[in-house]
Design brief:
The complex is a heterotrimer. Chain B is of the alpha/beta class. Chain B has helices spanning 4-8, 13-21, 25-33, 40-47, 55-70, 108-120, 139-149, 165-174, 188-194, 203-207, 209-216, 232-249, 277-290, 304-310, 347-356; strands spanning 73-81, 89-90, 125-129, 155-159, 176-180, 195-197, 220-224, 254-258, 295-298, 317-319, 360-362. Chain C has helices at 25-35, 55-59, 77-91, 111-123, 136-145, 166-175, 189-198, 207-210, 215-235, 253-257; strands at 4-6, 9-11, 15-18, 39-46, 66-69, 95-98, 127-132, 151-152, 181-183, 202-205. In chain C, the strands form three sheets. Chain C has a five-stranded parallel β-sheet. In chain C, strand 1 and strand 2 form a beta hairpin. Classes of the chains: A mainly beta, B alpha/beta, C alpha/beta. The structure holds iron/sulfur cluster (SF4).
Chain lengths: 66, 372, 258
């Protein structure tokens, strides 16, 4: 199954969750916010949020800026 | 809804009196030279005894600010008393319920007669005045009065009993544009001594009236203290605080301040804290400097000389040719008067005096053509 | 200097610092410490999937004050609401600098979308500080919509032109019921001082500190300018010109004749 994460394609096992994606990307979860198809998925629900082929996942964190 | 009561709760009358007394000439000069908007602390300096040596500077700044905002004009209006019925007992008022006087409430016909007469003198802005007797004069009566007179005048203001937000909205729809409601005094603990019975005895109900007017979207709200009851300096600082609160909260509304002054030895209620004309001038200038956009209005309680002299120095609105009894313009018997007037010139004479000073008398405030 | 209160929170510093454009994390840290700021704005960015967290943000880990995430990069209210929710999730804060600039060149804020977004976000419990034109009516509308403060611009962002909008800022300060933070255009400590003397509640500075030869020294200069201006305002500035002597009294003469 393929999803688009921050503009690049990611291969995931069928039934994978947001939690699985973050782990696969080896991202430090602290300070992240994740949206699937432009809807926020709170951290507490990452392990419940199952992804489907073609989903657009946005992962952001704070950075320097005025 | 949070109201001015929340602000008043943390204000202390005696503390403010002391703060005013301790203002120095430096505080006054600093207020006069402020680059930004003045705050209530500056206003305290301007009404303080220390400022009495700076009256010339205050007059000159007040004149400049008034000219800049209002030009060389003076707005004229006339009160029409609709009723002298009153269930309240205010110790200073001729209409007080305990006074055994003839009571009268104008009928629709009588209203029209009064209105057409004052219209023929030139007035296009009328102030409808009543006492407070909800059985005789309820909101239905007021709404029909406004509807009835609206075709005759460009502008209708009201000085009637405090009402609810919904009632004010009805009056607004009927065509009223301004409501004047004077707190008389902000000294809460002695308020009851002057207002012994009736709905007016309830301090909070009256105090929160401007909030209700703002909430209702009234175009203009008039404030005032009855000068002579309590120390005018302290009362005016409360009023200035009230004004600033209202201006910031109801920023679509215009505001006006009046200076009803109980004059000593007029055979009426003897004021405990009389104010001299010099002090009245200081107060007018303090308000102007505190708030350059504020409408300042002076009634015929004051003398022709004082009114003519102070015009252009801060005052923007003058009543003229007033009678303070219901039916007073069309009858010759004035036994029903609320208070006796001092400037008894005709509308024409007042207008001429204004022109003689190089000012333009303006008979209406604004046109309602563009309002729905 | 009285503390600054926004939405019930108290701050001892009236200088907000933008975290963009610094040459290194260390330069930003130095400026942060020297300026004694208690409010630093941060942006939201998509995570770089090649790993590596933002070193700049690592540097902010020990910051004791309030991080103020902004919505820069969004072009309308809908995007702003989404960005706000993401910011709250990422940083665990309800604080938000709401900025919507559809125009990529001047980064001028869109008043209509900003008001719309403010109405929605206030209902969702955000503490909103909108970045806007120095428009007094807009400020009142935002205040009614639930903004916790307003951030009118002094001049186009990054222009270092100072308080070009001075006349409008004066009106905004005079009638606001929420704190007024002058944002954008402040290019020198004297500009910041001037804003504070006028009665602004705080200023936000970024470029002028970030691109200075020494951000640390410039941070300190701004700290001093802001507190000098505020103290001057609070203690009451003297008259612009001395009161003229009262030799003649033409305007008050009538009072003696009455
Ligand atoms: S002041 Fe008003 S309320 Fe009081 S007695 Fe007179 S008319 Fe009635």
């Amino acid at each position: 199954m393929r999803v688009i994460c921050n503009g690049s394609e990611q291969d995931l096992a069928d039934g994978a969750t947001v939690q699985n994606l973050i782990e696969q990307l080896e991202l430090e979860p602290r300070g992240l916010a994740v949206a699937v198809n432009d809807a926020l998925v709170p951290k507490t629900r990452w392990s419940l949020a199952v992804l489907f082929a073609g989903d657009r996942v946005t992962v952001i964190r704070a950075a320097q800026g005025g | 809804m949070s109201t001015f009561q929340n602000v008043l709760d943390v204000m202390d009358w005696d503390q403010i009196s002391q703060a005013i007394a301790s203002k120095t000439i430096h505080d006054v000069d600093r207020a006069l030279g402020r680059r930004s908007q003045l705050d209530v602390d500056d206003f305290m300096a301007l009404v303080s005894p220390a400022a009495t040596t700076r009256l010339e500077a205050m007059a000159s700044l007040s004149r400049e600010l008034t000219m800049r905002r209002f030009g060389k004009t003076a707005q004229l209006y006339i009160p029409i008393y609709l009723s002298n019925e009153c269930t309240n007992q205010c110790v200073y008022c001729g209409f007080s319920a305990e006074n055994e006087i003839a009571r009268k409430t104008l009928t629709a016909n009588e209203m029209i007669q009064e209105a057409e007469l004052v219209r023929s003198w030139g007035f296009e802005h009328v102030l409808l005045v009543t006492g407070e007797d909800a059985r005789q004069v309820d909101v239905d009566y007021l709404v029909s009065a406004v509807e009835l007179l609206r075709p005759i005048f460009a502008q209708i203001s009201l000085e009637v009993q405090p009402l609810s937000v919904a009632d004010y909205q009805r009056l607004l729809v009927a065509g009223a544009t301004a409501v004047y409601v004077y707190q008389e005094t902000y000294h809460q603990s002695v308020y009851k001594n002057y207002h012994k019975k009736g709905k007016k005895a309830i301090f909070d109900w009256r105090l929160e009236t401007p909030d209700r007017l703002g909430e209702a979207g009234m175009r203009k709200i008039g404030l005032g203290c009855l000068i002579g009851l309590e120390d005018w300096r302290t009362d005016s600082v409360f009023l200035a605080t009230h004004l600033r609160y209202l201006e910031k909260k109801y920023w679509r509304t215009r505001f006006s301040v009046a200076f009803p002054r109980l004059r000593p030895h007029t055979g009426e209620f003897e004021p405990k804290n009389p104010q001299s004309e010099k002090e009245l001038a200081q107060l007018i200038w303090a308000y102007r400097i505190f708030d350059p956009d504020l409408e300042l209005s002076l009634s015929t309680r004051e003398s022709a000389d004082f009114r003519d002299s102070i015009l252009g120095l801060g005052i923007t609105h003058l009543s003229a040719a007033s009678r303070t009894d219901p039916g007073g313009y069309t009858t010759t018997d004035h036994s029903l008067e609320q208070f006796s007037i001092n400037d008894d010139r005709s509308a024409n004479e007042v207008a001429q005096a204004i022109r003689a000073k190089g000012y333009e008398p303006v008979w209406k405030d604004w046109d309602a053509v563009l309002e729905s | 200097m009285k503390p600054l209160i926004i939405a019930g929170h108290s701050f001892n510093s009236r200088l907000f610092l933008g975290s963009g454009k610094f040459s290194s994390p260390q330069a930003m840290l130095d400026a942060m410490n020297a300026s004694e700021t208690e409010m630093i704005t941060v942006a939201l960015r998509r995570v770089d999937l090649q790993g590596k967290s933002d070193p700049m943000l690592e540097a902010l880990k020990n910051f004791k004050g309030q991080l103020l995430p902004n919505t820069s990069g969004v072009r309308d209210a809908k995007e702003a609401v989404f960005a706000a929710q993401m910011a709250r999730e990422a940083l665990g804060t309800r604080w938000l600098k709401l900025e919507i600039h559809p125009d990529p060149r001047w980064l001028l804020p869109d008043p209509i979308e900003t008001l719309k977004a403010c109405e929605i976000l206030a209902k969702e419990g955000f503490i909103i500080l909108p970045y806007i034109q120095a428009d007094p009516v807009l400020c009142k509308r935002l205040e009614e919509a639930g903004a916790a403060a307003v951030m009118p611009l002094g001049a186009p962002i990054g222009s270092n032109q100072g308080l070009q909008t001075r006349a409008m800022l004066e009106i905004i300060i005079a009638q606001s019921r929420v704190p007024v933070v002058v944002d954008a255009g402040i290019g020198a400590p004297s500009h910041a001082c001037e804003a504070m003397e006028m009665g602004a509640d705080a200023v936000l500075v970024n470029t002028a500190i970030a691109v200075a030869g020494s951000p640390a020294i410039m941070g300190r200069c701004f700290r001093d300018a802001v507190s000098a201006g505020r103290d001057a305002y609070e203690s009451g500035l003297p008259a612009r010109h001395a009161q003229s002597a009262e030799a003649s009294s033409p305007l008050t003469a009538f009072l003696d004749k009455l």
